[in-house]
Write a structure and sequence with these properties.
It is built from ten helices and eleven strands. The chain has 309 residues and is an alpha+beta fold. The protein has three domains: 56 residues, no CATH class; 123 residues, no CATH class; 78 residues, Pdz3 Domain, CATH 2.30.42.10. The strands form three sheets. Strands 6, 7, 8, 9, 10 and 11 form a six-stranded antiparallel β-sheet that branches. The chain has a three-stranded antiparallel β-sheet with strand order 2-3-4. A two-stranded antiparallel ribbon has the order 1-5. The chain is extended and about 85 Å long.
Length: 309
């Protein structure tokens, strides 16, 4: 009896990938788990004895259609998983950048925590928003409108917008290059991303505190920082900070955003005594606290600059 080989063809199932051999004869399709020798055309199914198989069964048109449907479903699941992976990577990039503004013992702001624990659809919306922003800020057109609303002249606002766009393009280029070359999940990427952040436009330094406060509010961004929780035994607790306090200033510099406060704790000499002004039930309290990790949870919120602290 003359024998010949049939090449294995891959079929994808939702549960995984298997290798299957298909032999069609007289309206019958025989499936086997590996490539096998088969009898020549003309042989009856019961005479095919050279095949060693896990299963031999006829497959009709409806079963073929079902296999195609499963393949389509598998491809859809694969595409969804790929998108989820990219979304998670975007979140990791955000966390990497944010981690540079935190000390051990300080908790991320509640708005950041809620974003990272949001359902998939919400996380995708957040990721899309962050992509538009270029990370942790306002998209350039919203930025321009906010600057003008805060009283900044249009020429200055346009120049700031242009530099912000250039910075965002550099960030996107870095992410694309790292992804293509396979080093996006490395320390090198984290370091380059942090270095790029140092080049980000410092709007507050360019327009001043009062205009910056108005700009944040007009842009829909948080412009106030509240203590959400205090860790037992922390420097903040020892200084008298309690949950609900609104941070007005740290080391005699006004505080508008959570990141500003985190960065300020790293400036100067660690453990030096500095002033922390908080607003508690309508009363301003000037507390003395050592510079360094506060040991608090923070919450950002919006308040009209007209409601002066």
């Amino acid at each position: 009896m003359k024998l010949f080989w049939i090449a294995a063809i891959p079929l994808a199932f939702a549960s995984g990938i298997i290798t299957t051999v298909a032999l069609q004869h007289s309206g019958w399709i025989y499936l086997t788990g590996v490539s096998k020798q088969v009898a020549p055309p003309g042989a009856q199914p019961e005479h095919i004895s050279a095949i060693t198989t896990d299963r031999v069964q006829p497959v009709n048109d409806s079963e073929i259609a079902e296999l195609k449907l499963k393949l389509t479903q598998f491809q859809t699941q694969l595409e969804t998983a790929t998108l989820d992976r990219e979304s998670i990577r975007s979140e990791l990039d955000t966390l990497r950048e944010f981690s540079t503004d935190l000390h051990v013992g300080d908790l991320p702001p509640s708005d950041v925590r809620s974003e990272n624990s949001a359902p998939n659809t919400q996380r995708q919306t957040i990721a899309n928003r962050n992509n538009r922003r270029g990370f942790g800020g306002i998209d350039s057109q919203q930025q321009y409108d906010g600057l003008v609303a805060a009283g900044v002249d249009q020429t200055t606002a346009s120049e700031i917008k242009q530099r912000t766009d250039q910075w965002a393009l550099k960030r996107l280029d870095l992410i694309d290059t790292a992804s293509r070359e396979g080093w996006r999940d490395t320390d090198e990427f984290t370091e380059k991303l942090s270095a790029l952040r140092e080049q980000q436009v410092d709007i507050r330094a360019e327009i001043g505190d009062e205009a910056f406060d108005s700009y944040l509010f007009a842009s829909g961004e948080n412009n106030r920082v509240q203590i959400e929780s205090v860790i037992d035994g922390s420097a903040a607790q020892s200084a008298g900070v309690v949950a609900g306090d609104i941070v007005v200033s740290y080391a005699e510099a006004s505080v508008y955003q959570t990141r500003e406060l985190a960065r300020a704790t790293r400036d100067g000499t660690r453990s030096e005594s500095i002033s922390l002004v908080v607003l508690r039930e309508g009363e301003y309290l000037d507390l003395v606290i050592p510079r360094g990790p506060l040991g608090v949870g923070l919450r950002g919120f919006r308040q009209s600059p007209q409601e002066n602290l």
